[in-house]
Amino acid sequence: MSLEDFHHMLTELDGLDLGSMRFESNEDGHEEDLCEYIPGNPEESPYFLTLRTELKSLLTRAITELSEKEQQVLSLYYYEELTMKEVGAVLGVGESRVSQIHSLALVRLRARLQQLLATKAVPAHLAAQAVAETMETTWKRF
User: Fold this and answer.
1) Distances (CA, A) of 138 to 13, 62, 63, 130, 132
2) How much is the pLDDT for 27?
């Protein structure tokens, strides 16, 4: 099934009414909500997990298109959690230059991700949320 077909199916299911998720307990007569018994976080649904995996792939692709210096700065800053000053010491440049490289890399990443996402038909609000959640975990690949 293509991603477009999947999104279409989700749109069709969005208005589906499952009826009441409440039932009367036999023991004491009070109502219980079945939603309390549904396991897991909605953001851990197969849809969100697939979306997150796809976005990680796109982010990884966009990062590999950056220059080696930009990749190093991002990796040291986000994955190694070094300060800008420490990154500068490792790379032999000043803190202000690290900040410039970092800013330029983020602008390039944002622009490239927008291009890649435009071709994938991912809902904008979901894409933004998933990119924010996956940004730091992706650095582990570098």
Assistant:
1) 32, 11, 9, 12, 11
2) 63
Taking residues 97-117, report their average pLDDT: 91
Encoded tokens for 32: 């219980």
Helix (H, G, I), strand (E, B) or coil at 142: coil
Measured CA to CA, the distance from residue 77 to residue 13 in angstroms comes to: 42
Name which of 27-41, 76-90, 128-142 the model is least confident about.
128-142
Tokens 């992706």, located at residue: 138
Burial of residue 58 (CB within 10 Å: 0-12, 13-18, 19+) is buried
The tokens of 141 are what? 């690949």
Alpha-carbon span 87 to 77, nearest angstrom: 7
Span 59-65, average pLDDT: 91
Please state, in angstroms and rounded to a whole number, the distance separating the CA atoms of residues 52 and 127: 8
Please check whether residue 139 is in contact with residue 74, taking contact to mean a CB–CB distance below 8 angstroms: yes
3-class DSSP assignment, residue 98: helix
Cα separation, 121 vs 127, whole angstroms: 10
Residue for token pair 């975990």 = 137
| Rounded to 5°, angle at Cα 115 from 52 and 130 | 20
